[in-house]
Amino acid sequence: MTSVAQHELRPEAAWRPASHRQAPPGGKVAFIGANNPETARMVRDVQSATGVEFIGYFDNDPNKKGRTFCGLPVFGGFDDLLRCDRAAFGLVNLITRDTSTRHQTTRFFADNGFSAADFIHPSINLDGVTLGRGVYLQEGVIVQGGVVLGDNVCVNSGATISHETSLGTSCFVAPGATLAGLVTLAAGVLIGAGAVVLPRLSLGIGTIVGAGAVITKDTTERSIMAGVPATAKGKAPDDEAFLPLFLGKT
Ligand SMILES: CC(C)(COP(=O)(O)OP(=O)(O)OC[C@H]1O[C@@H](n2cnc3c(N)ncnc32)[C@H](O)[C@@H]1OP(=O)(O)O)[C@@H](O)C(=O)NCCC(=O)NCCS
Fold first, then answer.
1. What superfamily in CATH does domain 119-235 come from?
2. Structural contact between residues 152 and 137, judged by C-beta atoms closer than 8 angstroms
3. Which neighbouring-strand residues pair with 225?
């Protein structure tokens, strides 16, 4: 394989302007993780704006199988998922408790032939923004021009991603956090609620930023940062390499 072909296979090559998004397979979406009631409001808003049909949940908790969560059925766990037709629907990963689990879950369904679908509140202005696949943006997120949100990124309500900031694969930004302009997050970074990252900083792969922290310096891989100004409190486990995800063609 030539180096050019390898370059073309990099998932970043499939990241596209937000205006070029494609509908999920079959125009339908199922969720991974039946835990957050905020999903129900998002479903109503996204469904009426886009016509995408949300069909239900997959969740490995056996107590949830066969019940409903926020008005949609829980089909069962990953064993049940693997018996489904890959062309019938796309999947949205709602897991945000840590970026390792989020990344591993998306890799599991991508490696098994499922497509990642976006779940983006229709009120968000994405003009001039580049998106990977499987991006989940809650209501009230501000994403400024020149921002890049990679595959499997999630940003929660009220967070601000300022101009020309870039989030790598599987990053998660909690409610009310602010990333100033020209910030670069490597893959798997978690930004805690209300934290602030000052302009032009780079955060290493798997960095965890505590709630309310103010990051004033670049961070190294897997640093746990907290406080104002933030200082290193330790290292996150080295249990996930955050390798690129191959989520199919856009
Ligand atoms: C910083 C953080 C990663 C540390 O987690 P942890 O390693 O499990 O730490 P602990 O809860 O055991 O606390 C360790 C110490 O740090 C302090 N601490 C915890 N979080 C802190 C924070 N955000 N800022 C300042 N100090 C913090 C604790 O008070 C404790 O201090 P002590 O040893 O003097 O008692 C975590 O507390 C945090 O802020 N995570 C982000 C949560 C979040 O916003 N999630 C998004 C939800 S949508």
1. Hexapeptide repeat proteins (2.160.10.10)
2. no
3. 209, 232
Token reading at 75: 């089909």
CA of 29 to the centre of ligand 1 (A): 35
Question: To test the ligand 1 pocket, which listed residue (156, 178, 233) has its Cβ within 8 A of the most ligand atoms?
Answer: 233
CATH fold of 23-117, please? Rossmann fold (3.40.50)
C-alpha of residue 159 to centroid of ligand 1, in Å: 19
What is the pTM assigned to this prediction? Answer: 0.95
CATH 2.160.10.10 in the chain, residue ranges: 119-235
Compute the distance from residue 227 Cα to the ligand 1 centre, in Å.
9
Where in the chain are all domains bearing CATH 3.40.50.20?
23-117
**For residue range 44-99, what is the model confidence (pLDDT) as tens digits?**
999 999 999 999 999 999 999 999 999 999 999 999 999 999 999 999 999 999 99
Spatial separation of the C-alpha atoms in residues 133 and 126, rounded to whole Å: 14
